[in-house]
Amino acid sequence: MSNSKELSKHDVQTRQHRELPQRSIRPDVDIFEDERGITLKADLPGVNKEGLDIQVDKETLSIDGKAEIEMPEAMQALYADVRATRYQRSFSLSSELDGDKTEASLKDGVLSLRIPKREQYQPRKIEIRNS
Amino acid sequence: MLPRIHGFDTGLFNEFRRLEREMDQLFGAGFWPGSMRSVASESYPPINVGVTTDQVDVYLFVAGLDPEKLDITIKENRLLIKGERNLERDDDAKHFRKERHDGAFQKLVNLPEDVDAEKVKARYENGVLHLVIQRRESSKPRQITVQ
């Protein structure tokens, strides 16, 4: 009897342990483009600079943020919309964007990313000379 | 895979892990009670409410907000939060995604009956509004001595 009880308890713990790493929130983003590059804004409430990890390579941009929420001991949940402490989202980058020159800032839980277009894709003004 | 029994985590990192775990246990586990009638779960902004015997903690996830534009009132045990977030969007730019909430919002939450509306602390940090509302003495568990 006691043996089967222990087993089921063990199962529950194992299942929770497995599920934890996968649980993350997909943050809301705005993305817009002007002639010089692309701007991305993401809502990451609860994330500070230390908890934020942004990876840019040739093809992908990934945002990974960990929220730190101060909570009292022995708190019981009454209601929750937010059920994870991690934000994750990735985007593919088109080739005219220069990921190496990405600039990022974070303020009040809003991430702002600016990715410029490569030099050859920048608009050029053509001077017209008088003949 | 088995849960790890022996950990190598120490100090601050360990503390973060603990918080994260607690948050997951509190807000992520399956034994979730039914949602409160007064809160529509899909509406902006997301909100979490937790209780201890001493206080009620309300977390409002509102990034990029001007706290001056918040209007927080508690009447009896009803908490009403009104606010506004105005995004600066360049109309000349080409928008690919517009998912972030823009404009006014409000949230009405039923709190436990014994909250003390006079004892509220509010803090806005990293895009999270955290309210701590004290509960009245009467709700605390009391040791009864048998004569």
Structural notes for this entry:
The complex is a heterodimer of chains A (131) and B (147). Chain A has 131 residues and is mainly β. Chain A contains one helix and eight strands, in the order αββββββββ. Chain A has one helix spanning 2-19; strands spanning 29-34, 37-43, 47-56, 60-67, 76-80, 86-92, 103-107, 110-116. Chain A starts with a helix and ends in a 15-residue tail after the last strand. Chain B has one helix spanning 11-28, and strands at residues 47-51, 55-61, 71-75, 78-85, 94-98, 103-110, 115-125, 128-135. Chain B is elongated and about 80 Å long. Chain B has a domain at 44-87 and 101-136: Immunoglobulin-like (Sandwich), CATH 2.60.40. Chain B is 12% helix and 39% strand. By secondary structure, chain B is mainly beta. The chains are: A mainly beta (131), B mainly beta (147). Chains A and B meet through α1, β1, β2 and β5 of A and α1, β1, β2 and β5 of B. β5 (76-80) of chain A pairs antiparallel with β1 (47-51) of chain B.
